[in-house]
Amino acid sequence: MKKILVIIIALTGVLLARAYDYPFIVFQNTDGTTTTLSVESLTISVADGQLTVANGEGTCSLPLSSLSKMYFSQTGGQTSISELLVADADGQVTVYTVGGRQMGTYASVEKAKSALRPGLYIIKGRNRTLKITIK
Question: Nearest to residue 134, comparing CAs of 123, 108, 39?
Answer without folding.
Answer: 123
